[in-house]
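This protein record is not my work; I was only asked to verify it. Take the sequence as given and treat only the tokens as open to question. I have pasted the whole thing underneath without changing anything:
***
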Amino acid sequence: MKFPENFLWGGATSAVQCEGGYDKGGRGLANVDLVPVGQDRYAVGSGDLHANDFDPQAFYPTKSAIDLYHNYEEDIALLGEMGFKVYRFSISWTRIFPNGDEKEPNQEGLQFYKNIIKECGKYGIEPLVTISHFECPMGLVEKFGGWRDRRMVEEYAKYAKTLFEEFQGSVKYWITFNEINMVLHLPFVAAGIRFDEGENRNQVMITAVHHQLVASALATKLAHEIDPDNQIGCMMAAGPHYPETCKPRDYWKAMEDDRENYMFIDVQSWGYYPQYALNWVAKRNAEIPFIDGDRELLRNHPVDFVSFSYYSSHVSTSEENRTDVTPGNVFQSIVNPHLKSSEWGWQIDPLGLRITLNLLSDRYRKPLFIVENGLGAKDRVEDNGKIQDDYRINYLQEHILAMRDAVSEDGIDLIGYTTWGCIDLVSNTSGEMEKRYGFVYVDLDNEGAGTRKRLKKDSFEWYKKVIASNGECL
């Protein structure tokens, strides 16, 4: 009932949700900078409402976020104090190429991440770097229309190659795209896509994600050529779909929903589009924009490992127009009456994590990496400065037990586990600060007011013991 001795315990953040400093160090404007809090958030994120610049009447929390840009030494020291073995962070594309189409990278941006990696090295923390975590330079959105344009592949390859060369020997684990299946749910956030009236939205999304799949394969090729020790992973937003009943139609719908989640990871892992994916595209009056060399590139350069986020399972039904769906999540699901829910309506299913690990292991036969898992909750600072978050400890404890069962009983090849938002950050879904995931509290409210002081929660010491005991002391 033990984890491997070299198991990588840690946590994860994304640049846009924690760094701030959106206009510092030569950084350019990114698509995700322009997603406001409030009623227009989903419309902008989905590409229906075009955003070209900041609206002076709106609030954009990621402009300053928790200001990791100026506090990374303190923040990484806290991760080191917990004993992190790995820290998953993303690199802001626009810190390296501010508009996306520059010939030479921004040296100040490169130095910032060299400093972060150096700080990680002080504490023996392995970097796990996401190359693109919901980020596309607005310069390329304006110039190309985001990932709908084939020229994005070349710009991404230039960016990835720069990272592989600059951080050679310092970074081993890479993820090409965060939650690549999110293109079908938040196209502007995931691919810089803004829709024009009357166009075939499915064709645009399929075109964009095909370009990302080609870019991922090209990045994998470059990474292995530059440093054979590089390990490249894909990533999906995961969680099994349970049929609502034993009606065959419900089971079929659950299978279809699962396949839609797997579709792009199948390509990155297997090196080709499976037949069901080709059928899925054709049924939506779309086609995959192959050009010469695409199929060979995909086939010859699959990823080394499969990573995923897991927050909840889902329930599928063949009935239409159901209203009893879970709130607060872009992945719509029928409410599961057998599960409890978080304050944001995300249903809590630890066994679903073990199921997911087994499903992915059976499907891909590659090492797996859980790179996001956690509980978003409202934390309260007591008068004595303490933050009692037993609810978070219980959530993580149950998920780690399920993970341990998958490793020790089911024989799952699992590289590591990085909890989401190890330091409180801005929620991607809602833009709120009060939806907190971290072991470290950041004094900041939903309107951006606060000292940004870091405070340790009760879960901080708990996770420290978990890591020190390699998952035995829960």
Notes: The chain has a mean pLDDT of 97.
